[in-house]
Design goal:
single chain; mainly alpha; 9 helices
């Protein structure tokens, strides 16, 4: 259906941009990606801490789970994938490609199907969201969490489906963790 097509097109476009970044190394020349390399370093330190069984020093910046959920996520992904930044970027791209699907579901509660589709398509290729969902930064996951909150709130106020209502507490927890 529409949601699957929207996700696949959005994810495919993000993978193409990721491939461009990997082949050209262009993202290393932009100031906008500085945070990504910071998260990469912290993720490597967390993964090394796990690999060493706690023998290496824990990153001082990361003092709790809920406030530093993204850093923990990067560390766990790096632990599982042997420090693969591309794996983290793909996870961000998946979250970025899911945002238009959530926008579509949310818009269906408050508008007609055609308007909901237009809102989803516009959100699918929103330039900054599209770009940041291809970087190893928390922006796409934070946006994903916020859109979950909106879906959940809209479902609650519209007597929506139970699974859509569950988006509210999940989104709130993730938003707190990603400090959106």
């Amino acid at each position: 259906g529409f949601a699957l097509t929207l996700f696949c097109v959005g994810f495919g476009a993000r993978l193409a941009l990721l491939l461009f970044f990997m082949l050209t190394d262009v993202d290393r020349t932009y100031r906008l990606t500085k945070d990504g390399f910071f998260y990469d370093r912290i993720g490597r330190e967390i993964a090394e801490y796990y690999r060493s069984g706690g023998a290496t020093e824990w990153p001082r910046r990361v003092s709790a789970v809920i406030d530093f959920l993204y850093e923990h996520l990067v560390g766990i992904v790096y632990y599982v994938t042997d420090d693969s930044m591309i794996a983290m970027r793909c996870l961000n791209a998946i979250a970025g490609a899911m945002i238009p699907v959530l926008v579509w579901k949310t818009a269906k509660y408050i508008s007609d199907d055609e308007t909901a589709r237009r809102a989803a398509i516009w959100s699918a290729m929103f330039p900054t969201q599209f770009y940041y969902s291809c970087l190893p930064v928390r922006d796409s996951l934070s946006t994903f969490a916020i859109v979950l909150v909106f879906l959940g709130m809209t479902a609650v106020t519209s007597n929506g489906k139970g699974k859509d209502i569950l988006a509210l507490p999940i989104g709130l927890a993730l938003t707190a963790g990603f400090r959106a």
